[in-house]
Amino acid sequence: xxxxxxxxxxxxxxxxxxxxxxxxxxxxxxxxxxxxxxxxxxxxxxxxxxxxxxxxxxxxxxxxxxxxxxxxxxxxxxxxxxxxxxxxxxxxxxxxxxxxxxxxxxxxxxxxxxxxxxxxxxxxxxxxxxxxxxxxxxxxxxxxxxxxxxxxxxxxxxxxxxxxxxxxxxxxxxxxxxxxxxxxxxxxxxxxxxxxxxxxxxxxxxxxxxxxxxxxxxxxxxxxxxxxxxxxxxxxxxxxxxxxxxxxxxxxxxxxxxxxxxxxxxxxxxxxxxxxxxxxxxxxxxxxxxxxxxxxxxxxxxxxxxxxxxxxxxxxxxxxxxxxxxxxxxx
Amino acid sequence: xxxxxxxxxxxxxxxxxxxxxxxxxxxxxxxxxxxxxxxxxxxxxxxxxxxxxxxxxxxxxxxxxxxxxxxxxxxxxxxxxxxxxxxxxxxxxxxxxxxxxxxxxxxxxxxxxxxxxxxxxxxxxxxxxxxxxxxxxxxxxxxxxxxxxxxxxxxxxxxxxxxxxxxxxxxxxxxxxxxxxxxxxxxxxxxxxxxxxxxxxxxxxxxxxxxxxxxxxxxxxxxxxxxxxxxxxxxxxxxxxxxxxxxxxxxxxxxxxxxxxxxxxxxxxxxxxxxxxxxxxxxxxxxxxxxxxxxxxxxxxxxxxxxxxxxxxxxxxxxxxxxxxxxxxxx
Lengths: 331, 331
What we know:
Two copies of one chain form a homodimer. Chain A is an alpha/beta fold. The first copy, chain A, folds into two domains: 3-126 and 319-330, 3-Layer(aba) Sandwich (Rossmann fold); 130-314, Dihydrodipicolinate Reductase, domain 2 (2-Layer Sandwich). The first copy, chain A, is built from nine helices and 13 strands. The mean pLDDT of chain A is 97.
């Protein structure tokens, strides 16, 4: 079952990662088309030793494709995902455009691949922080029932795209040299600083990112009653999102039992040895597939509850890898 | 009432700040003696235009002092604080050595200055993250009663001392140049990374820093029932500790009421205008006295509760400023 694939947003942080993961995982494909904005048309990318040129989006550009990955923002997805579907492709969309559409499955394949059984034409890839949190908590939820999560994130600059990552580096260089720097991609200078706003503010003071962690988690885990209170913060880290998760459980759980449940959960790496000073770090996770969990301890706020520290590469499991896993499930 | 003062640990990050704050606030003193380790004996510091030489600790070195500030670690405090007291000085100790001693007041002057009324010979200055949290929540606690706090911190490198700050800079330079770097002060390379352990691990998986935020807050606020579940994380920020605080309240509180209570709290700066993209940032707080609070919203986990984002300069209000304020109260 060899496939013809398209990647929209191929020069972006997630798009580049997608191409690399398709090659690494030997995804069965006979053609890959890369789409980018007009500004990137001269650029190329290498896939299985072949140089591929960027193409522009336009009328009938998806004709002949089996699967189109979208990772170029919500506006572009709203316009082109329906066209890709009309031209015969299945769209796997990394933007937020369709995630809460009741007709569209929102998928973390380890935990709700069954929503793909009906062979949908559009599949939504969840928000990166949401995927990492779901990977860290789903095994506990299935076994014990999670009622409430206090989630506090430490999100890498590359979560805001390739240009934000470059801005982190440029801003850090300027700060170390004692030079002034004006932020252009992020809202403020991120060098040695923290920005406690990701996405737009809503009327209730929560940001779009914080709402995603609530609404998308409820949909993925089919648990509309679960409360997720998130505080999402951009940190001067290049890659990998980290988070503290405090869990209120329906059935109490000891630390050894939690370690047992998490060590056998798919896609999860237990890094929890205080005696060896071992706990998840973004520097260790960058470029790897598994979400790491550690610092497991009894909650001091929720009797019988737990506190965890989770770190995952948001460009891989938080975006590109998850999208490729969805495509693999659909094969 | 002019005083003779001593500063133990005068070349450290907090010691330097202490000297600057004494000068800024025109603290009435006729003599300042600076104590440092043997390695720093050649060094000097300037106070009110006068060059002061570092002295070594030794027999009878505190004789004649009214007040001795200690900021050179727990071991040294345990040895020399009793000597300073014996030689007639009041010791204001920034280490953790005496903080939980029932005979020693643990003071954030805005909130429990009354514990100084008995003119104690030793006063403990709380942990830096604890002071910043107490400043952010005490007004709400007094008015509404806080039952539980989920505290998740983002702590600056300088919280681990001057050498850790220098290591952050050196490590960041190396990372940007693509060069290897070996951490010597912090336990792992902090450049563009996060270290989710501060202080030692306890048997229950919580760290010393996380225990301090629980035990010291209970003592300062005289609220032994309050639960504080902390996750403390070192971040690649030079200066200022930041934290997300989720509060379970005995009496429900709206966001406007919280803003009203916090805007009139001493030493607090309300920075909470989503419409202007205004929220506290460590880069803005560095070198300033007030703890800033923003991102105030209704808790999604605790009915009637609140979520806050607080940032404060941990070398000033989190350490040196608080110690000087204690000395001012004692005058």
